[in-house]
Design goal:
Layout lengths: L2 E2 L2 H21 L5 E7 L3 H17 L2 E7 L5 H13 L5 E4 L9 H7 L11 H8 L8 H12 L8 E5 L6 H10 L3 E5 L6 H5 L4 E4 L17 E4 L3 E3 L2 E3 L4 H5 L4 E2 L6 H21 L2
Parallel strand pairs: 1-11, 2-3, 2-4, 5-6, 5-7, 7-8, 8-11
Antiparallel strand pairs: 9-10
Helix pairs in contact: 1-10, 2-10, 6-7, 6-10
The protein binds guanine (GUN).
């Protein structure tokens, strides 16, 4: 029987713990603050940013939002990041991706000071993760590891197969799983005979943005499936995995919505509080 990994409920419990932690910080006169930058009008980003601001409000984290014009120059974007880097009251900075094509997102992430880089996208944090040092781990991979741990799903020695090599999910997830002694395989759009790899997975993590792409015939019995996809279709939100078909075979599976998404936001909140404590609790 498949067990559904209830990311929504896990995330709620994490937010409750973090709320208590913020109350303790406030007794010491410390108030965490997150600044979020969004460039342009990406529809999905607006939803994600709204979820982040709601979580901040619930937990007691101060929140500032900068919505920049679509045609803003790289120089102006870097100037804003620099200003936020130097603000004593701002503990955490997040640049929502994607940003318009004329801007260099890598340069922007590099500009965010590593101490406030709660997304873990600055090369210093990326490097530290690959060396298994203390750092900000990007929120979706961090949330996935947390879910596996909460459900006591063993990672060590397992064949973990990731589909999707984005800088936001796939690549940092390789390091997270390696740091936990999984045998990690990463597949992507140019992988030949994908099924050969997915069939071998004990833990299959899918982040490709193709609705219901992973079907029953592509997985083995008792696999654990983490579905990172959020695809808006005429029939509502669906993941990258054909949930109904695949559910017959899996031991654990995350739903969409209510799986990875809420955990990503919860781990962001966790990182904001970590940044605050690192900076202000000496
Ligand atoms: N766009 C989609 N997911 C994310 C995320 O986790 N962080 C940022 N900054 N942008 C995103």
């Amino acid at each position: 029987m498949a067990e559904i990994i209830d990311g929504k409920n896990l995330a709620k419990n994490i937010r409750l713990e973090l709320t208590a932690e913020v109350q303790e910080l406030k007794k010491k006169g410390i108030i965490p603050k997150l600044a979020v930058i969004m460039v342009g009008e990406d529809k999905a980003s607006k939803v994600y940013v709204k979820n982040k601001s709601k979580a901040c409000e619930e937990i007691g984290i101060e929140y500032e939002e900068y919505i920049l014009e679509e045609n803003i120059s790289m120089e102006s974007l870097l100037e804003l990041i620099d200003k936020l880097n130097n603000r004593e009251d701002v503990d955490a900075i997040l640049l929502q991706s994607p940003i318009p094509k004329h801007l260099d997102i890598n340069l922007a992430f590099q500009k965010i000071t590593p101490e406030k880089d709660v997304d873990g996208f600055n090369p210093i944090n990326v490097g530290k993760l690959s060396l298994n040092q203390d750092c900000f781990v990007s929120c979706t991979p961090y949330g996935i590891i947390k879910m596996l741990d909460q459900y006591k799903i063993e990672i060590e020695g397992k064949n973990a197969v990731i589909i999707g090599r984005s800088n936001i999910v796939g690549k940092p997830l390789i390091q997270c799983l390696l740091n936990r002694n999984a045998t990690v395989t990463i597949c992507h759009s140019k992988t030949k005979n994908l099924k050969e790899y997915t069939k071998n997975a004990d833990i299959l993590i899918v982040a490709i943005g193709k609705p219901k792409y992973i079907t029953e015939d592509m997985v083995k019995d008792n696999v654990v499936i983490i579905d990172v996809g959020i695809n808006r279709t005429d029939n509502g939100l669906v993941g990258d995995v054909d949930f109904e078909g695949v559910s017959k075979k899996v031991s654990y599976i995350t739903p969409v919505p209510g799986g990875v998404g809420p955990m990503t936001v919860a781990m962001l909140m966790n990182n904001v509080i970590k940044a605050t404590k690192n900076r202000k609790l000496k």
